[in-house]
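Format notes (please read before filing issues)

Several people have asked whether sequences and structure tokens are stored in separate files. They are not. Every record keeps both together, in the order shown below: the sequence lines, then the token lines. Line labels are part of the format and must not be stripped during preprocessing.
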Amino acid sequence: MRWSRNFNSKLLMNTSLIYNNYSTKAEENMDVDMKVSTDINDYILKQDFSLFSSEKSTLRFGYSSTYHNIGPGKYKYEENAGTDRTLQNRYSWENGVYVSHQFKLSDKLELLYGLRASAFSVLGKGSFYTLDQNHNVIDTTFYKSGKIVKTYFNIEPRISVNYNLSNNSSLKASYARTTQNMHLLSNSAMSELSERWTSSSNYIKPQIADQASLGYFRNFADNRFEFSVEGYYKEMKNQIDFKDNANTSRKDDIETELLFGKGRAYGVEFLLRKRTGRFTGWISYTLSKSEKKIDGINQNKWYNATQDRTHDISVVGMYELSDKWSFSAAWVYYTGNAVSYPSGKYPVDGYEIPYFTERNGYRAPAYHRLDLEATKVLKETKRFTSELSIGLYNAYGRENPYMIEFKTNKDDPNKLSTYQYSLFKFMPSVSWNFKF
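Then the structure lines:
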């Protein structure tokens, strides 16, 4: 729900009330029949003001307040209900105030700078843990509902400069600091059932990123085409990853399985876009690297982050055949995710345990697909428009990897077998869109 109000020609206010629910449900029927469900509930209040003091100056300021309720996991077993487990919820209250100023210094130079101050409060109800240097729990403290456990304060400055070299070209440079208090814990060596959400706590600190970028932008051929190239570098603090052989689920004290360090990401992005005519579209390419360095993982050396993608390509085309018919096609390609594959296995108490030598040292198969769509305008008047769209997702049926699992070979227990699971080989769609 959003309420907008113009106090006068210069001052605008937006008030937003937002409820957000994110939930996942999954079933595993491989070794053990198990159902897992997680959910996040957010209650958000936002207040934004815009002050247009002159044609050259715009001031924006406001605040936001968010109450988080994370349900990290409910585990239900079909055969042995006595082992069902529900992890304790985590609660937090996140607040922030900001101010930014966009100022046109001259016809060629424009400046945007701002500051955001954030406060993240960890709240009860729940048990919170004190750990020793070996990540073992040495004390547990229970906090009542609504009790503040710990509050993190952070200052997030940002600035960007845009300089027009000519009527058709410009340079842009920027710097920004951001903080993140909601964390997705993921183990690339396990199935997605091992993923879980958590928030900053008395032990887990907010992740902090500082990013700088520099780009060149140019329009040509009477503004029918635009081209841009932009490079960036990001340094990250308080990066999180599971330790080796971690128990990734069904634990309230998940902090005992985590290690912390630093990260970095850098790359260059290219974009060529056709803006006008019956045929429009763009080609984009990103060459990038994303790494982590955490003591206790990968012999304390830099290793690929799970989301590291060397190459990322998008080709999009749209064609207006007539006033009634239009067609579009989009092809995407990116390097497979960095994953940890086992180098072998060893027996422990009758179980075969995979042995990993390098964190995220392998690659899943590359991801690519083609999407097609055709749209027909059924009716168009000044007050009403309706369209019918027919689409095909993954038109050539690429079996992209969704999950890769390793299991002991049934015919030869000395070997490991690899299983790849894929989703959405072909997915047709029909939609009716209307405006009034």
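For reference, the curators noted about this record: The two ends are 20 Å apart (CA to CA). Residues 15-362+391-427 form a domain with the Maltoporin; Chain A fold (CATH 2.40.170).
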